[in-house]
Amino acid sequence: MRMKPGWKLISVFALTLSGCATQPVPVQPPPAIVPVTPPPPSMPAGGYVGMKIPSKLNDGRYFTPNLNNTDSAAVWHLRNALNVAALGCDLEGGGIVDAYNAWIRNHAAVIDRYYQALIREWQAPGWIDWQRVYDDDQTRIYNFYAQPAMRSGFCAAAREEVAQVGQISDDDLPTFAHSALSRLDRPFINFYKEFDAWRTFYHLNPPAAAQTGDIPLIVVQPPPVTTPDGTGAPIEAAPAPGQ
Questions:
Q1: What average pLDDT does range 210-229 have in this prediction?
Q2: Is residue 17 part of a domain?
Q3: Within a domain: residue 215?
Q4: What percent of the chain has pLDDT over 90?
Q5: Is 117 part of any domain?
Q6: Which is the most buried residue in 51, 61, 167, 185, by most CB within 10 A?
């Protein structure tokens, strides 16, 4: 049977179209998401295994000597903090002794006024041994600011505060003292946060060697820090370490 010419052309055209039909594009799977594990927290500089730091309070803050200070306590604690800085920051850039001496000379009357008010606050409860408790509290303040691990950050903060305190009016001194102490505490609080993060991580993820007891944990206690006399008298130079 012979095909008519017209039908032959239609058949050829149909075959041509079927050969040019679009082929389906294979669907590529989405790229695999590889989780990135953050590096473990590092021990902050100056920290050591077994180091004791304050525990967090219920409100999430760390204890420092400056929580809930009265105005009198804030002024005297600022004086204590800057006194520690004048005594111990020569090797961390210095720049504190002269400004500190000028402040306690030029503003001696107002500093003493707040000091006397603080003493009355300590005496008010009627404790027989208030003087001993007060002296112990002053020792803790000096030891707090003299912690070696935080010295660099503390000295940098103290350098900024001592440069401003001499320009503060007597009436504004308590307000300035509260805010300055908050800034002076910051290097310590930052250290506590970093140390807590490191300690928590390794408590939850102890190294394999530590689990088998191959790594001894050595507790090293920092050397005690003695307290200056607390009189507030000007100092002429910070002593060299060990003196």
A1: 42
A2: no
A3: no
A4: 54
A5: yes
A6: 185
